Amino acid sequence: MKRKDSLDVVVAGLSLVDVIGRPVTLSAAPRPGSLQYVESITMTTGGNVSNCGIDLALLGFRVGVITRVGDDAFGEFLHREYRRHRLQTGGIIVDTKAQTSSTMVSVDRTGERTFFHARGAMRNFRPSDILGNLGIVARAKILAVGYLGLLPESEPGLALLFSTVRRRTGVRILLDTGGTPKRNDALLASLLPEIDYFMPSFEEAAELTGARSPEGIIRRFRALGARGVVGVKLGARGCHISWEGKGKHIPAVKVRTVVDATGAGDAFVAGFLAGVLKGLDPFQAARVAVAVAGSCVTAVGASTAIQPLRAYLRGRRDPR
């Protein structure tokens, strides 16, 4: 019997507020002091904690969050949105010395995004923030941490964090990447043996390994000690997944109109974890992942178009 306070996933790391304007043509920016009209400006949640966490809640799972926010209006907005989606917020640390992390997102007519980011309270996020909430982690089945590449102050302590989490809780661990992570073979070699799921985007994986093909990237991850499921997110081409000595390309779901690609990678992670939690093998879970990511890009905002998991399992998703 499940405990009343049990969780499916704890999502830890980067949370922020996105202010999304579309369409914005940066190649023809307005003159200084002048004004340019856009069709919409939307304030929404962002970062892996928000995107992956809310997506998982919309898919039907119980989610806890561990992150830092400022003592400000943006922080209150994140608290409110998390509670609205029934995320467990006991792991949120309110940082009185920094503003909530936030990003201005400019989206052009093709859906491509350009980011202007203020790190704020996430400069002070450390693995100790997760270890200090180990009781919350222990209530879950999976800990999803992000992002490698965007939390540089945390990177030296990640290996100890993951080994401690494995030893003291036994939960499975997913590590996600973001931004432009720098190649660091020693760091990867300390992390990959400790985690169960690692599926960066192609651009991030190429930067991390120097390889230029999904197969080459995965071979490099294995050489650095990866023992679990590894893969490469390929955007509109789907993904390539490696598990138990087998590799498979999973094609993307066709989408008629791409509106906003914000959060598509996080939606992939949420869909993959949803599949795993439902007992699917990693290849089957990856098919759910590309379908959820396909939903994500059909509306403005990272979580706006996410549907309950049954829609993806039954093939009823409307790709718009």
| Average pLDDT taken over every residue | 94
Radius of gyration: 19 Å
Total of DSSP H or I helical runs spanning 4+ residues: 11
Shape: globular
Annotated CATH architecture? 3-Layer(aba) Sandwich
Helix content: 25-40%
Uncertain ranges: 316-320
Count of discrete domains: 1
Secondary-structure-derived class: alpha/beta
Order of helices and strands: EEEHEHEEEHHEHEHEHHEEEHHH
Q: What is the CATH superfamily?
A: Ribokinase
Number of beta-strand segments: 13
Major sheet: arrangement of strands: 5-4-1-8-9-10-11-12-13
Percent in strands: 15-25%
CATH class call:
Alpha Beta
* Biggest sheet architecture: 9 strands, mixed
CATH topology: UDP-N-acetylmuramoyl-L-alanine:D-glutamate ligase
How far apart, in Å, are the first and last alpha carbons?
40 Å
* Quaternary status: single chain
How would you characterize the overall build of this protein?
Helices cover 33% and strands 24% of the residues. The chain is built from eleven helices and 13 strands. Helix 5 (158-169) links the parallel strand 8 (142-148) and strand 9 (172-177). The chain is globular. The strands form two sheets. A nine-stranded mixed beta sheet has the order 5-4-1-8-9-10-11-12-13, with helices on both faces. Strands 3-2-6-7 form a four-stranded mixed beta sheet. Residues 316-320 have low confidence and may be disordered. By secondary structure, it is α/β, with parallel strands linked by helices.
